[in-house]
Amino acid sequence: MSSVLYDVPGPRARLRNRILGVVTVLVAAAGVAWTIWRLAETGQFSARKWELFTYSRVWEQFGQATIATLSAFAAAALGSVVLGFVLAIGRLSDHAWVRIPVTAVVEVLRAIPVLVFMLLLYYGLPVLGLRLPSYGAVVIALIAYNGSVLSEVIRAGVEALPRGQKEAGYAIGLRKAGVLRLILLPQALRAMLPVIIAQLVVTLKDTALGFIITYPELLYYARLLGSNPQFGSPLIPSALIAGAIYVALCLALSYVAYVVERRTRRSPRATGTDAAAPATTTEPLAAPPAP
């Protein structure tokens, strides 16, 4: 069976797809094998380079670096969501004197790379007599960029809703603020939740840029360990461990997003149950008594 947009592959196409799949797997396996071979040839698996990670103090510092990463991420994620809602409401305003400046702010914040923003805050503000700690520079830069991105996500979610939703709110006497707060924003948030969580995962990974301004997060500590000449400068082992921690954090956040999305989409209508429905019986009603 075929449709307008898709034709079911025939015997030759299926054979070609199988061949392409096998070739892709073989190429990927060859790439992994070559990478492992090169790491072994350069001594990256030697005991000297991994001896550093047998000390408990190293893992304690890895834990502190992970906490620093999560601390910056938590503050940046919360600030980004709040700023995203504020900017989205401004972008949806009917007043041009509000909408146009907010649009300009969003476009400027989206255009500035996060790393450039961090450098401007950390190294540029002291020229003006203001000093920010590395933590503040990382968090503010992440909030500014990701908040502007989330504002566009939320605005797109609101504008994608059927026009009848807004008109129904006005019909029952709600004002613009009430329609946004009670009708449009909750539905847009539910619809765009996967995109919002995906952007928060990007926020978590962007905390690694803080090592350039000496913020003591995971990548900064991995680079510090990798430059230790006493253990053969184990840069790649340190990067592998830090990368594994980043992957674990991102997978945990993705799982939380999956659970939240699944619970958010549950509703009484989806389950098809109605607690207020009266009980029914199959027995016939008794005839009224004779006078």
Automatic annotation (TrEMBL):
Protein keywords: Cell membrane, Membrane, Transmembrane, Transmembrane helix, Transport
Membrane topology according to the record: Multi-pass membrane protein
Main location: membrane
Transmembrane segments: 20-40, 67-90, 102-123, 135-154, 235-260
Biased segments, Low complexity type: 270-285
Cross-referenced PROSITE patterns: ABC_TM1 (PS50928)
Compartment(s): Cell membrane
Pfam families from the UniProt entry: BPD_transp_1
Occurrences of domain ABC transmembrane type-1 (ranges): 66-257
A single Gene Ontology CC term: ATP-binding cassette (ABC) transporter complex
InterPro entries (UniProt xref): AA_ABC_transptr_permease_3TM, ArtM/GltK/GlnP/TcyL/YhdX-like, MetI-like, MetI-like_sf
Region described as Disordered: spans on this chain: 269-291
GO molecular function: transmembrane transporter activity
GO biological process, one term: amino acid transport
Family: Belongs to the binding-protein-dependent transport system permease family.
The name this protein goes by in its record: Putative glutamine ABC transporter permease protein GlnP
